[in-house]
Write a structure and sequence with these properties.
mainly alpha, Four Helix Bundle (Hemerythrin (Met), subunit A), two-stranded antiparallel ribbon, 7 helices, about 0% strand, elongated
Length: about 170
């Protein structure tokens, strides 16, 4: 409905968000495996996943921001949910970027230290899950990026047909 950045009629942001989610999760799992096994291979896998997750989060952020900025009408509940979604994702991106910067210097170390990296990956992952909750509400509740059938569209509120009390309710 509100998605402005599309390829072949499909919104780009929902298509690419799976990559940073999977890579952030891989970062946490690999660093956890490193803590358990002390095998430096898992540290390196975690670091590579972390860096790739940050890159893909940046790729996903561009169409996501544009969809939010120019696609979702102001004063709607969807705009607020989108802002929360964006802030949580940006926070996760910052946490994972800091994590990568802290860990990259230990690439060649025989037994790197990854304790704080594991904690940061967990914090970033929790932020990502929170962002996912709001991202899903954009799709499920507010139908952002969803092409409705004519029958479904009949039941969607339009800003011009709302009463003042409906607008107040919708902006909360």
């Amino acid at each position: 409905m509100y998605s402005k950045v599309k390829i072949f009629g499909h919104p780009i942001h929902p298509m690419v968000v799976a990559y940073p989610i999977a890579l952030y999760t891989s970062t946490f799992v690999a660093l956890l495996l490193y803590q358990i096994t002390s095998d430096a291979l898992w540290f390196r896998v975690g670091l590579i996943a972390n860096i790739a997750g940050v890159v893909m989060a940046l790729v996903a952020a561009v169409p996501g921001f544009l969809d939010w900025a120019i696609g979702i009408p102001g004063g709607t509940r969807a705009k607020g949910a989108g802002l929360t979604h964006m802030l949580l994702n940006v926070s996760a991106l910052i946490v994972f970027a800091l994590n990568a910067l802290m860990l990259v210097g230990q690439w060649a170390v025989a037994q790197p230290s990854a304790g704080i990296g594991l904690v940061l990956a967990l914090v970033g992952l929790v932020l990502t899950v929170g962002a996912g909750f709001f991202g899903w509400s954009l799709i499920q509740t507010h139908h952002v990026g969803v092409e409705l059938t004519p029958e479904q569209a009949r039941f969607e509120p339009s800003p011009s047909s709302e009463t003042a009390s409906q607008r107040v309710y919708r902006t909360r």
